[in-house]
Design goal:
Blueprint (H helix, E strand, L loop, with lengths): L1 H4 L1 H16 L8 H12 L3 E2 L2 E5 L5 E9 L11 E10 L1 H5 L5 E7 L2 E6 L6 H9 L20 E13 L2 E18 L2 E12 L9 E9 L9 E11 H9 L5 E13 L4 E14 L10 E10 L4 E11 L2 E9 L8 E11 H11 L8 E15 L2 E17 L4 E13 L2 H4 L17 E11 L5 E7 L3 E11 H11 L8 E14 L7 E13 L8 E10 L3 E11 L2 E10 L8 E8 L2 E2 H8 L27 E13 L2 E13 L2 E11 L2 E10 L6 E12 H7 L5 E14 L3 H6 L1 E14 L11 E13 L2 E11 L2 E10 L3 E8 L4 E6 L4 E5 L12
Parallel strand pairs: 5-7, 6-7, 29-31, 30-31
Antiparallel strand pairs: 1-3, 2-3, 3-4, 4-5, 4-6, 7-8, 8-9, 9-10, 10-11, 11-12, 12-13, 13-14, 14-15, 15-16, 16-17, 17-18, 18-19, 19-20, 20-21, 21-22, 22-23, 23-24, 24-25, 25-26, 26-27, 27-28, 28-29, 31-32, 32-33, 33-34, 34-35, 35-36, 36-37, 37-38, 38-39, 39-40, 40-41, 41-42, 42-43
Length: 839
């Protein structure tokens, strides 16, 4: 004792304890005995790769490569596989010559839960066998001579699920599991784990907790069971991804609790489920919606049936109740369910709808109640769905009450589609095609928009898709009110007028795809416009047809500015902005460059009052400057100031403000023109590009346009010109290109030679003109007159006037200066100059 109290004794004892703590002597020969002890306690074959003795902090063994085999009835793969296991022994069992495991603790084991073809789980089989083993409770008394059931635990375990030989993608990870025998006839277990899938990436799955106790019984189906199951802090989108393989787009915090009591073949279940902050993934309006329900029932885990099921969700003074039975739960399961909706206020439904549907008004308000009773059953004879209900006194309003819809009393019914397929429907009125499977039918009912005449509305819903319809005469502004209230996206120009509509709105629930509107509308006396477009559009009549791919405007009769239009237009519905190409076949009675410039000219955006003094406000862009269109165009009269082209027929292309007229045919200045015109309305003034031929153009008409009869005759020409301007002189002054011409049987009325006829007659005048920056350069022109042949060359421009040299065959020459309207002729070199100007 003195030695132990001495410093050397204390040091020696500390060294011994350290050695015992660190040193793990091998015990390979004991592995068979240890494996047998564990197997006897749990009723399974156990193998161990290696064993090391551990003396501190508690005597036991460190096991390597522990494998607990599964019952061959379930799987040839081990039920448990763990590389590192700590086994603590009962010291008193050694005094009796036995080796008992008091605690078996595995780190990061892999556990396989298997269900065979008969629907039984290997875990249930293990528990059933363990109840037949004569073990003492885990915390047994010292006097007990029987081996005690060990305390089994695992940390950071992975639990896999197998159906037969197929390993499923679902698993539980980071699981903490414990199993023990509480008393002579009862066992206990607990688990906390995170659910996951092996084929997708999941986060925010929350935590599943299970606490269970069960009693000894003759069979697994008769083991009295007490179990509490909880799932907390789960994210709804990730949970839908867990079960379906992809995120369905819903968000919310999920919590679920369930209490189960009784034998597995008659489990009494009481559960409560909640979803807080429910919303669609792309809706962030700050509102908080909570969904909850409480359910009870009796579940038979052997037959996989759910009986006496009853779920109830109170809703603001009303309730939703679901009751019935289900099972066996498998493909084509039988069921007999009843859903009762009792006086649910529509006002309480609106917050839920606003979290599920984008585009609804922030101040959407609903009044009225929903009451219905539906029944769904499936047996060996087939499935049957039926039931009916009423939406009473329904009214929707938004935009501070300015937009209102009154639905009145709307009937609803649940149909399995069987009656329709048998052709037994008595109502022969035309309705949208209803599906052959189970679906919910609404209406038909009168839909009152503002103070207008009621229209007929209705539709149907299935778990996969939906279709709603609207028929009747209504005001255009009421259709916009309806679209605003129900959150239908789309282009909505300001419009006033009426329409007879027969349209439907349909779509799929999957993926939150935008609904498709199809049908027809007969427009009458509609006045509309587009932001940035100055002239209003007045549509006397038109038929609008909407299908899944295009919008068609047929039998159009409309006025836009000075032009009256008839014809048809088609445009695609599914294309990126700016890439849509309209197809048009239009005719106009008249058009002009001034009107065309007005259509494409940007107009100032209306400024708020607090920026009224700002001078640099950006201008709005004409919508025509962003449109692309192709088609045919016929214009009776097109005016370029005083120049009128008539009977214009062309293939037109409109590309974001640039108008191209191909294969153009027109009557112009008592002649004809064929060619290509490009009108660029993206610049001011408008820019023109003209190529083609002119035939039999009246030069007298050209003079009339210039307000002076300075020339007569006709001309043929091949032209390739570009010009910009809003008046004829401006076009001449800003022209580039070339032209070849041949003037016939005319005269220059303001020009005369001293020894020639006055005015100067022309039998033929041919030449080629190069035009650059408004300067017209004539090279090698030839004039045939009654007194000879003349050669003429030189330039002409609005700035410097004429600078031409006229040479006759007898070598007499004259300089031609001045302007076209007031030319001056003087003799050239060594010839007496004499100016002749006709007054």
């Amino acid at each position: 004792m003195r030695f132990l109290r001495s410093k050397r004794g204390i040091a020696a004892l500390a060294a011994l304890l350290l050695i015992l703590f660190l040193y793990r002597p091998g015990a390979y020969r004991l592995r068979t005995r240890i494996a047998g002890a564990i197997g006897a306690a749990i009723g399974r074959t156990v193998t161990i790769d290696n064993v090391r003795v551990r003396l501190l902090p508690r005597p036991g063994f460190d096991l390597e490569g522990l494998v607990i085999a599964d019952d061959p009835e379930f799987s040839t793969e081990p039920m448990v596989r763990a590389q590192d296991v700590s086994a603590a022994i009962r010291l008193r069992s050694l005094l009796r010559g036995r080796l008992e495991i008091a605690n078996l603790s595995a780190t990061e084991p892999s556990i396989n839960l298997v269900r065979n073809d008969q629907g039984r789980w290997n875990l249930a089989n293990l528990l059933e066998r363990s109840t037949h083993i004569g073990t003492a409770p885990t915390g047994k008394n010292v006097s007990s001579s029987r081996p005690a059931f060990p305390y089994l635990e695992a940390s950071h375990a992975r639990i896999n699920f197998k159906l037969g030989q197929e390993k499923k993608a679902w698993a539980l990870t980071d699981a903490d599991v414990a199993l023990w025998q509480e008393s002579e006839d009862s066992w206990g277990a607990r688990m906390a784990a995170q659910p996951t899938r092996t084929d997708v990436n999941l986060t925010d799955m929350g935590l599943i907790r299970i606490n269970a106790t069960w009693q000894r019984g003759q069979a697994a189906s008769g083991l009295p069971l007490q179990m509490t199951v909880g799932w907390s802090k789960g994210q709804l989108g990730q949970i839908t991804k867990l079960f379906s393989g992809r995120d369905r787009g819903w968000r919310g915090d999920v919590s679920f609790t369930a209490n189960l009591a009784g034998p597995p073949n008659a489990l009494q279940i009481q559960s409560q489920g909640e979803i807080d902050n429910f919303r669609r993934f792309d809706i962030m309006n700050g509102a908080s919606v909570r969904l909850s329900t409480a359910c009870s029932g009796t579940y038979d885990a052997v037959e996989h049936t759910l009986d006496k099921m009853s779920c109830e969700s109170p809703v603001a003074g009303g309730s939703i109740r679901l009751s019935g039975q289900l099972g066996p739960i498998q493909a084509g399961a039988r069921y007999d369910m009843k859903l009762v909706v009792d006086k649910v206020p529509l006002a309480s439904v609106v917050p839920l709808v606003r979290q599920a549907k984008r585009g609804l008004p922030e101040d959407l308000v609903a009044t009225g109640h929903l009451a219905a009773e539906f029944h769904a059953a499936r047996s060996s004879a087939g499935a049957r769905w039926d039931g009916k209900g009423t939406i009473s006194g329904a009214r929707l309003s938004a935009n501070a009450g300015r937009d209102q819809i009154s639905l009145g009393d709307s009937p609803i019914a649940l149909s399995d589609g069987a009656a329709r397929s048998r052709g037994s429907r008595r109502d022969a009125r035309p309705k949208p095609s209803e599906p052959s499977g189970p679906h919910l039918v609404i209406g038909s009912f009168p839909l009152v928009l503002a103070a207008g005449t009621p229209a007929a509305a209705g539709g149907w819903f299935t778990p996969a898709d939906y279709r709603l319809f609207l028929r009747g005469e209504t005001e255009i502004k009421n259709l916009y009110r309806l679209a605003n209230i129900v959150g239908v996206p789309g282009f909505r120009p300001l419009a006033d007028g009426s329409a007879k509509v027969d349209v439907s709105l349909s779509g799929s629930w999957q993926g939150f795809e935008a609904p498709a509107i199809t049908g027809t509308a007969q427009l009458h006396n509609v006045r509309t416009g587009m932001r940035g477009l100055n002239p209003a559009i007045e549509i006397a009549t038109a038929t609008v047809t909407l299908d899944s791919e295009t919008v068609a405007l047929d039998r159009l009769s409309a006025q836009m500015g000075e032009s009256h239009w008839t014809g048809s237009i088609r445009l695609p519905r599914h294309c990126a902005p700016g890439s849509c190409v309209w197809l048009a076949d239009l005719a106009a009675d008249r058009m002009s460059t001034a009107g065309l410039a007005e259509w494409f000219t940007p107009h100032p955006v209306k400024r708020p009052w607090y920026r009224i003094l700002s001078s640099n406000e950006s201008q709005g862009k004409s919508p025509l400057a962003s449109i692309r269109a192709v088609g045919k165009l016929h214009v009776n009269r097109f005016s370029i100031k005083k120049v009128d082209a008539t009977q214009i027929v062309a293939h037109v292309e409109l590309d974001r403000g640039k108008v191209t007229l191909r294969d153009l045919h027109a009557d112009l200045l008592q002649g004809t023109h064929q060619g290509l015109w490009v009108i660029d309305a993206t610049t001011q003034p408008l820019r023109y590009q003209v190529t083609g031929i002119l035939q039999n153009i009246s030069l007298a008409q050209v003079g009339a346009v210039m307000n002076d009869s300075w020339i007569t005759g006709t001309v043929d020409s091949r032209i390739d010109l570009t010009a910009a301007g809003s008046t004829f002189p401006e076009l001449l002054a800003h022209a580039d290109g070339q032209l070849k011409f041949a003037m016939q049987n005319g005269a220059f009325n303001h020009m005369g030679l001293p020894d020639a006829a006055k005015p100067f007659p022309v039998h033929l005048f041919a030449g080629r003109v190069q035009i650059k920056d408004g300067t017209w350069n004539l090279n090698a022109g030839r004039i045939e007159s009654h007194d000879g042949i003349y050669q003429i060359s030189g330039t002409a421009s609005p700035a410097s006037g004429l600078s031409l040299v006229l040479t006759r065959g007898d070598e007499q020459s004259w300089n031609v200066t001045g302007t076209l309207l007031k030319p001056r002729l003087t003799r050239a070199a060594r010839t007496e100059a004499r100016t002749v100007i006709k007054p």
